[in-house]
């Protein structure tokens, strides 16, 4: 049987998800990561984790396509048995996503539905399908955004779905408590090169001046918080939202 804990990280081929996967591996955790189209990048992350002395597997997944989740978890079950010698994993990190910047007056139904499918329905039903394979005493970490707390023009659809995920997380904490499973939210601010904010010099300058620590975030600022939530030291954190922004718009 597997002697290491195992994390499933969605969207682990680049940006925040890549850093989460690497930080988890540095903490001694094996990783199953997913990618939508960046197969080569995902393979490179697997190689980095293996170089750290831990096991990793990359699987394709489109979190917006709920009808594929059953087959995806069949693959996960096979990987758990064949690669890790177990039938359960310990940590689910719902990270995969994309961004949308559009004023309310111009947001189309198609854009709204895309945000809904990726950031809310995808997270809800992927988590539902994961529950039989998630070990009792495990953790669920959902990724939200600072814009679910403070409002920025153009992000209404994206932030609305993330706000709903925060409510969903509290319900997970209540309903899964009997299994010893804790569920929490990590809410980053603008992480350029992987976040929802437009990546322009003007936007970077605005974020830096609005942040108490006086700079913009890197993916490396976020992954360690996710890894911490998978440690025994974080065992009594449950149903909480951790905003990881360096102190923006306080």
Structure described in brief:
By secondary structure, the chain is α/β, with parallel strands linked by helices.
Q: How would you describe what is shown here?
A:
With 250 residues, this protein is α/β, with parallel strands linked by helices. It has a single domain (6-244), classed as NAD(P)-binding Rossmann-like Domain (Rossmann fold). It contains seven helices and seven strands. Strands 3-2-1-4-5-6-7 form a seven-stranded parallel β-sheet, with helices on both faces. Helix 1 (15-26) runs parallel beside helix 2 and helix 4 runs parallel beside helix 5 (156-176). The N and C termini lie far apart (47 Å). The model has no long low-confidence stretch (mean pLDDT 94). InterPro entries: KR_dom, NAD(P)-bd_dom_sf, SDR_fam.
Rg over CA atoms: 17 Å
CATH architecture: 3-Layer(aba) Sandwich
Helix content: 40-55%
- State the separation between the terminal residues, measured CA to CA: 47 Å
Mean pLDDT: 94
Physical arrangement of strands within the biggest beta sheet: 3-2-1-4-5-6-7
What name does CATH use for the topology? Rossmann fold
What is the 3D shape? globular
CATH class term: Alpha Beta
Biggest pleated sheet: 7 strands, parallel
Give the domain tally: 1
**Tally of extended strands?**
7
Instruction: Tell me the series of helices and strands, N- to C-terminal.
Output: EHEHEHEHEHEHHE
CATH homologous superfamily placement: NAD(P)-binding Rossmann-like Domain
Question: Low-confidence runs (pLDDT<50, min 5 residues)?
Answer: none
Structural class based on helices, strands and sheet pairing: alpha/beta
Give me the number of helical elements.
Answer: 7
Tell me the strand percentage band.
Answer: 15-25%
InterPro entries: KR_dom, NAD(P)-bd_dom_sf, SDR_fam
Pfam family, one: adh_short_C2
Keywords: Oxidoreductase
Protein name: SDR family oxidoreductase
């Amino acid at each position: 049987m597997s002697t290491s804990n195992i994390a499933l990280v969605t969207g682990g081929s680049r940006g925040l998800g890549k850093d989460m996967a690497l930080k988890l591996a540095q903490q001694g955790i094996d990783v199953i990561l997913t990618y939508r189209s960046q197969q080569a990048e995902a393979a490179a992350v697997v190689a980095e984790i293996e170089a750290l002395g831990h096991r990793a597997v990359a699987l394709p997944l489109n979190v917006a396509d709920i009808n594929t989740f059953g087959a995806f978890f069949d693959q996960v079950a096979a990987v758990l048995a064949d690669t890790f010698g177990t039938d359960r994993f310990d940590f689910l990190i719902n990270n995969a996503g994309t961004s949308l910047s559009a004023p309310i007056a111009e947001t189309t139904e198609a854009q709204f539905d895309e945000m809904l499918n990726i950031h809310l329905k995808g997270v809800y039903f992927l988590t539902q399908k994961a529950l039989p394979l998630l070990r009792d005493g495990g953790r669920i970490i959902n990724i939200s955004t600072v814009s679910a707390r403070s409002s920025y023009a153009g992000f209404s659809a994206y932030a609305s779905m993330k706000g709903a995920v925060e409510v969903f997380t509290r319900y997970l904490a209540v309903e899964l408590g009997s299994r010893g499973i804790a569920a929490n939210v990590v809410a980053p601010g603008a992480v350029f090169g992987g976040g929802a904010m437009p990546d322009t010099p003007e936007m970077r300058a605005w974020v830096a001046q609005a942040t108490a620590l006086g700079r913009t975030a890197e993916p490396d600022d976020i992954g360690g918080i996710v890894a911490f939530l998978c440690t025994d030291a974080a065992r009594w954190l449950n149903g909480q939202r951790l905003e990881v922004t360096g102190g923006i718009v306080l």
